[in-house]
Amino acid sequence: MLRIYGSANSRALRVIWMAGELGLEYQHEDWLPRAPETQTPAYRALNANGRVPTIDDDGFILSESMAINCYLAQKHHSPLWPADLKQQALVLQWSLWETDRLDRQIVDYVRHTVALPSAERKADIAAANWKQVTPAFDVLETSLTASTWLIGEAFTVADVNVAGALYRALSIDLGQWPRLDHWLQRCWDRPAAKAARAMREK
Ligand SMILES: N[C@@H](CCC(=O)N[C@@H](CS)C(=O)NCC(=O)O)C(=O)O
Question: What is the pTM for the complete model shown?
Fold first, then answer.
C-alpha cells in the first residue's frame, strides 16, 4: 500500500495530484510542514530532512516531490511518463529547472505579498523574488509558444511537476504571460488537479 506523508497544504500537493492522475489508492498522513509528527525520530528515519512530502511504497521510501512523481508514473506505466528516452530527459530537465528557478522564489514572493500577516511581510524580499520569478515566467511563455504542453503535444509528468509547483501563481495576474496563463489553467482544470486543490482549499 502506498502511504503519502504531507498535507495538500505543502509540496505534497503535486504528489497528491499525481496519485489522482494515476488513480492510486493511498493512506494519507495529512501533516503540515514542521508539524510535530515530522520531527519524530520515526519520521526522521524516513526523511532525514524532516520535510514533506515523503512516500512509503510497500517499504520503498522516497522523498523529493519531483522524484516521487517520476517514480510513480514510471512504476504504474502511465502515459504521463513518456516512452522516448529524450522526452524522459526533458521531464527531468523541466522538473529540475523548476526546483532551481521557481520553487522557493514563487513561495517567498506570495508569502511576502499576500500570504503572511501584513506586519510580517517584507517588500524587499517580495521584490527580490519577483525579479527571479519574472524571467522564469518568460522562459515558460517562450517554451509554450512551441508546443501545447511543456515537452510537446502530450500532457506529461513535466506539466504536473511544474504546474503543481505553480499553484501559487493561480492567484497572480498572468496577463503578461498569456500562454503560461492558459497552460496553467488547462493543467489545473484536470479532474485530479481539481481534487488535489479541493483538499488544500477545504
Ligand atoms: N525539494 C523538496 C522540498 C520539501 C519541502 O521543503 N517541504 C516543506 C513543505 S512544502 C517542508 O516540509 N518544510 C519544513 C521545514 O522547512 O522544516 C520537495 O520538493 O519535496
Answer: 0.97
